[in-house]
Amino acid sequence: xxxxxxxxxxxxxxxxxxxxxxxxxxxxxxxxxxxxxxxxxxxxxxxxxxxxxxxxxxxxxxxxxxxxxxxxxxxxxxxxxxxxxxxxxxxxxxxxxxxxxxxxxxxxxxxxxxxxxxxxxxxxxxxxxxxxxxxxxxxxxxxxxxxxxxxxxxxxxxxxxxxxxxxxxxxxxxxxxxxxxxxxxxxxxxxxxxxxxxxxxxxxxxxxxxxxxxxxxxxxxxxxxxxxxxxxxxxxxxxxxxxxxxxxxxxxxxxxxxxxxxxxxxxxxxxxxxxxxxxxxxxxxxxxxxxxxxxxxxxxxxxxxxxxxxxxxxxxxxxxxxxxxxxxxxxxxxxxxxxxxxxxxxxxxxxxxxxxxxxxxxxxxxxxxxxxxxxxxxxxxxxxxxxxxxxxxxxxxxxxx
Length: 401
Fold this sequence. Notes:
The chain is about 30% helix and about 15% strand. It is an alpha/beta fold and about 400 residues long. The chain has two domains: about 60-175 and about 365-390, no CATH class; about 180-360, Glycosyl transferase family 10, C-terminal domain (Rossmann fold). Strand 12 (about 270-280), helix 6 and strand 13 form a beta-alpha-beta unit. The termini are far apart.
């Protein structure tokens, strides 16, 4: 009986021991196969954060080509540094802009080279591009003009440019004329692919603006000196003039008003109801200063271009010609607004929520050069000509004239 008891205890101990060993093996398995990798990954991340030292070295940007004949791209000096970037309120300021190729020991020491592609490069045939290039350097194609006015030949620039700096919203650095800034938050809302605009025009009313609208006596005005544009805007204006009054100032019209004259700005608010901001090319995202300049006054811009204006300006702040099938329908709507001042002034609702601010592409460039992606990832535009030209512009307008 005693032997059986001892044997039972022995079996029990062995069983418990085996069970404990099995449990230990399970714990080890779970730890090594499930928990340990996670712990290791977290440790790797923590080590990376701990050992990461931001690249706070100044970034040198060389203005390699002219900007419409200007060597320093209209900057105040040949070389500008952090003080310049602070003066335009950039979030990152540790950059240097220069057109001096000898500021650094070698051309390959510059972090980025900026090439203006709107005009033909005028350097010697033996020195159109640098003879040496560091793999870490960023070559940037910059342009504010439409493809219709791009004079630099892009055929030979395969795998040459890393970044683009243009008005197009799919550029690496967006270089547009102006931004709409939310007054309350200070955020830039547009241009953007999917801007989140405020609403509120439906019930908008302002007694002062109502009286202003009643005092306007002229229908529409246009300032234009580039005649025979690719968009055929001259022909469109002529068709509109058959149905309503349009005063055209500049080389393409019969009236004159000196550029920068206070009189020109005053008559936009005090005399005219509509400002024709017609672009020279019908190209994607191509909106020049015409629309923005008119919106500084109390006059409704009538826009004509190839852009989706909803990405650039608040709703009910402009009249888009391309939304009308015929010139007659457009003129009928303008007549409706002209004779209904309560509806007319609703086009100024946005001024209580947004302000127009100049764009600072060099701020974006400086910040992007300091981002880790600029150091660790390299990209090239395999066919920059195709990216810039294919599908970018349209020959025929949506409105018939």
